[in-house]
Amino acid sequence: MRALVTGAAGFIGSTLVDRLLGDGHSVVGLDNFASGRATNLEHLADNLDFVFVEADIVT
């Protein structure tokens, strides 16, 4: 399965991303860093099943 996680750099979003990847899914994470932190995703930099997009879905 492929999943899109909005707010991926936040606490809940990054935890969900980790869980989905751990279960063998491919994940696209989206965040505008309004409250999320890049440090929550640093450990995923080399994970080929994770793609990060910095964007705001509102604008």
Can you walk through the features of this model?
The structure is a single chain. This protein is 20% helix and 27% strand. A three-stranded parallel sheet has the order 1-2-3, with helices on one face. The model has no long low-confidence stretch (mean pLDDT 97). It has one domain. It is α/β, with parallel strands linked by helices and 59 residues long. 19% of the residues are buried.
Major beta-sheet overview: 3 strands, parallel
Quantity of strands, as a count? 3
Class per helix and strand makeup: alpha/beta
Radius of gyration: 10 Å
Number of domains: 1
Strand order of the largest sheet: 1-2-3
Tell me the overall shape: globular
Q: What oligomerization state is this entry in?
A: single chain
Indicate the mean pLDDT: 97
Which segments are poorly predicted (pLDDT under 50) over 5 or more consecutive residues? none
The first-to-last residue Cα distance is 28 Å
Order of helices and strands: EHEE
